[in-house]
Each structure stands twice: as structure tokens, then as C-alpha cells.
Amino acid sequence: MDSLYIGQVVELSLSKRKLELLKANENTERGDLRLAEKIDDDALQTARKDKIIRIRELIRETGREIHKMKGFVRFKLLGEKVKCGYMKPEHEVGFMVLDWFAKRFPGKVIVLGNKEQSWVSIYTEEGVSHEKSGSLESTLDELGEELDMEKKKDLTEVWERYYESQYSERRKNEELFKKNMPEKYMKRAGNKAERKFELQKLDKFKS
Amino acid sequence: MTNLDKIAHLAEKSEYDVSTPRKNWDEFDLNKLEALGAGTKHDVCASTATPRVVKGLQRIGNTSRGGICHSFTPDGRCVSLFKTLFTNDCAHDCKYCPNSDDCSTKGKTYSYTPKELADITLSLYQGNYVEGLFLSSGTGKDEDIIMEKLIETARILREDYKYEGYIHLKILPGTDKDYIKRSMEHADRVSLNIESCSKNRFHEVSSTKHYDYDILRRQRYIRDLMEKNGLPASHTTQTIVGGAGENDKEIFESMIREYRKMDLKRMYYSSFKPVEGTALDDKEEVPNSREHRLYQTDWLFRVYDLKPNEITLAFDEKGFLPDGDPKIEIAKRVFDEPVDPNEASYERLLRVPGIGPKSASRIIKSREKEEINKWSELSKLGVVLKRARTFLKVNGWTHSTLDRWSS
Ligand code: SF4
């Protein structure tokens, strides 16, 4: 049947992805999740009620963190099989970020984390397998017992020189930089080169 | 067996290891990296969005439909690609360009080898510093020889390294059609910069390149090849704003021609900045606000679907876009009464400053359920009231009289 008839019970629900994003947000409350069960994507987009707008914002915030982490984290290569890096997201987005990287680099173990926790993911013909674990260090130690993880020289220096070559002093726009690359995301992704360069520029500017 | 053991075991077992370039970065010439990187900083396109879908496991990398920015420089611009020249050696005499044969301060000439460039690209990609490669170049003594090297770089990446990330290749002016075809087999996007809005203006800034033959004809090749064989992220171009004394209207007219005749995805604008030692080094710098206004008109044409004759209402009698948003200038002229968001069509809503495609469709969907009676409701639907208020009527109430915008 194509059209609805009066009295028909319509199941409203947000798309799976949106629900995942909502659940992952640290600030989501039980009331938000209950309300989210009663609305669909359309209602979310056209909402005028503050409670629904709040849900929209929570979803947007989680999505933004995932997007920024995909761009801002950096990997070091350990042997041929492992790529690791720092990440300390505010929301529960670990697997969403990790699985995306795993699909980008099939057969590689992707490890991201910090002093408290880490996430590990791999994509093979069996699909994605992932795991949440303790500190980044302990996870790498454990993986090191199984895999050859000789540290390769990383590219920080190459990247720093390249990054600086792209800057145009005549177009300096601190406000736009801060909007696009907020300090909080640089910190959560452990981004060093850009922060260092930005501080140097600010110093020059002040002097 | 713990889950970590299982993951390690899967990695051991996986045989999709494609050859990884090894590079001793200690021996790498960072001055070359810097000089050839800096050579592209005026090339604006940083898009990495492509609809190309990557499948299978025997590969390194994939693409992203919406694009990803990996960094931003303190000028606020996105750094998403390893953007570099292949060589800064060039036989042309473009009067604004530091690589030009005539530039008195032209520094040392550097070149990569295709293998070297493929290695750096892949290494930066593996470290998640970039989303792919943007490869441009001076023409050297012969553009076809250099174009061959650009293609070889892309081929190594795609075939030897099984790299599936994003590639944007520049087509050098005057390149043979066969090289254009081969470039397009590897790239997500190609581009050829028109640099100027017309033949006459172009010849004021370059005497060695021919506008019709070296630029427009090659753009037609790209268009026709694209129609036949496809090109995931289409082709783009860029023009310098004010380098040859052109006004905004001339640039706008070339924008319309480019979009309509060349089937172009995007046109980029870059305000002229004099470079020491070039033939135009005493010419005054053009403010960034000019390129910003042009982007706004480009957006009105491409995204808001306004007709060129509506957009031209925003230009002054000298053919320049005045300070302020062109959409407001146009709205002042097209609306003779305030717009009622409960009645107006999608097209009419789109012409209201502060309302974009997203908020216009939200208004339409939302009013089907319930009338819009408050300004705050519009704001919740994404309308920027600061700009929209003057042109709207909510609950029979307006924020200004029409005389205010016609005066
Ligand atoms: S062709 Fe390109 S690199 Fe060569 S001088 Fe002209 S703008 Fe510069």
C-alpha cells in the first residue's frame, strides 16, 4: 500500500546514523533519547520546538567532532601493519572514527587513543573488527607481542615545512582560522604542528 | 585469545599489503618541498569531494563524498591536499607569476621525479596529513614533456601503489589532447586556469600563451572527453581578479560563459597580489573583498539559480560590485513588497537575503504542518534574521517599510 489511511500507526524514527550520533554525545540525556524515538528526520530538520532543536544540535555536535577527528588526527607507522596516533574525543565517537580509518586502510591495525583509553580497529574480508582497550601505551605493548612494530621515522618535519609554505601573510585571517580549526579539536586530535605555527604567528603579530 | 590478539592475527593473515614506498626523509631536500609547495599557494581549489566509490581490499586509501579538511593555515584556508608544483621551471612570461622566465627575483629551479613525488604523497596520505594530491607545474621547456611526468606520478600512485585517494591534476596550457585524456584516466578532477576574463585582458598579462588556442580549446577538449568518459569530480578553473585591470562585470560574464559552455564544476577567484621582481610588481594589490563579492555572485548563479540578468542588478554603473552583499542589492530591486513566508514559493524565498536553500525548504515543509507566526520560529528554521527581517512579513507585521529599501 502506498498511501496512509487515517488511524494507521506510523512508526516514526530517526535514521540509524542520527540515533547513533545522539547516543554518542556526552550531553545527551534520557529525555532526549525518549523524545528522539517519537520523531523522524523530517521533524528534526523542520523543528521549531526547543527540545527538538536541542536534539538536532547534539547530533550536529557529535558529527562535527567525528568530521574534525577524521581530518586532524595524525598517524605514525609502526612496522608494516600498525598505524597509531593520539585522540581524546569528548564524545563516544571512538569506533565511528576508527572504523572509518580501518576501511580507508584495509588490513592495517588502526590504533588511536590517549593515557586513559584507546580504540583498535581493522578491516578485512571478514568485515570490521574493533575493540576498546586501556591506555594507548598498554594497547601498543600488547599488540607488539604479536606484530613486528619497528617505529618508522615520522613525517612531522616534512609536514611542518610544507604547511608553512602554504601560508600567505597577506591573507592572514585569524578569526577564520580559529573558526575552522578550533583549539579544542586540535587538542583532542593531538595536533602539534598547526598549534605551534599558530602560536609563532600570534607572537609575531603581537610584537 | 583476547580481542586484541584476534585483531593482530587478522592483520598477520591479511595479504592486501601493497608495496609501500620507503624513503629516508633525512636525505630529503626540504627547501625543494617548500619552494614547490609555495608555488601553488595562489591556486585556490582545495576540494576533495568526489562521488567516486572505492571498493575491494587490495588498495591504500579511498575517497570521501563530502571532502575532508586536514588542516587550516592562519589565513583561514583549508589545507586538504598535498598541493605542489612538479617544477618551477617555466618558459612562459606571465607578468604576475614568480616562476615566469622574466621574473628578476626568480629563485633556484627545482623539480621532482615522478617516483619521488608519488612517495611523498603516499607517505603524507598514510600519516593522514592530506586527503590526496593536487599537482600543478611550470611548463619547463615543453609542456608535453612535463605533462607526461605529471601523468607518470599519478600512474605510479594508482597502479604501482594501488592508491585510491583523491588526485587533482592541472592541465598545462597548450597540452596535447592525448595527454589530457591520459590525465583524466587517473584523476578525480582536472583544471586549467583561464587566469583572465577575455582574450584582450589575457594578452595584457601574458604574451607567450594564446587564450583561444592554449586555454579555451583545451577546456573544450576536457569538456568533450568528460562527456564521453566521465570524470568523477569534473573540471574547474581559476581567474585572477584585477590583474589586467578588468572590472567585476567582465569577470562575471566570463563566469557565466565558463559554466554554460565548458560544463565547469567550479570557478575560483583570486585577488591580484603583486610579487616582487615580476613585471607587475608595482601594480596595486587588489583587496580580498573583491574576490569575496565575486564568490557571492557565483553562488547566486550556481546554487541559488538566479538568472544572470537578475544578478547584474547588483553591479554599479562602472561594472563593480559595491561593498555589501550582492544578494541584498538584488533583493532591494526585485521585491516591491515584503515576502510572506507562509505564502511565498521556494524560488521567492530563496531570493530573500538570509534565507538559503536549506532554510527555504525547511520553511516550506514546516508551514505545511503549522503556520509560521513568530520571527523566532524563522530563526529556528535557520533564517538569518539580521539580514532577512527587512524583506519579510510575519503575522502581517514588517520590520521596515518598502520605502526604506527603495530610497
Ligand atoms: S604558465 Fe604558469 S608557471 Fe608558467 S609563468 Fe605562466 S602562470 Fe607561471
Description:
The complex is a heterodimer of chains A (207) and B (407). With 207 residues, chain A is α+β, with helices and mostly antiparallel strands. Chain A has three domains: 16-70, no CATH class; 73-144, Double Stranded RNA Binding Domain (2-Layer Sandwich), CATH 3.30.160; 156-206, no CATH class. Chain A has helices at 16-24, 30-36, 41-45, 50-72, 94-104, 136-144, 156-165, 174-180, 183-188, 193-206, and strands spanning 76-78, 82-86, 109-113, 118-124, 127-133. Chain A has a five-stranded mixed beta sheet, with helices on both faces. The longest helix of chain A has 23 residues, at 50-72. Chain B is of the alpha/beta class and 407 residues long. Chain B folds into two domains: 29-286, TIM Barrel, CATH 3.20.20.70; 336-406, no CATH class. Chain B is 40% helix and 9% strand. Chain B is built from 16 helices and ten strands. A six-stranded parallel beta sheet of chain B has the order 3-4-5-6-7-8. Chain B has a two-stranded antiparallel ribbon with strand order 1-2. In chain B, helix 3 (114-126) links the parallel strand 3 and strand 4 (132-136). The radius of gyration of chain B is 25 Å and the shape is globular. Classes of the chains: A alpha+beta (207), B alpha/beta (407). Chains A and B meet through helix 4, strand 2, helix 5, strand 4 and strand 5 of A and helix 1, helix 2, strand 1, strand 2 and helix 3 of B. Bound molecules: iron/sulfur cluster. Iron/sulfur cluster (SF4) is lined by residues 90, 92, 94, 97, 99-100, 138-139, 173 of chain B.
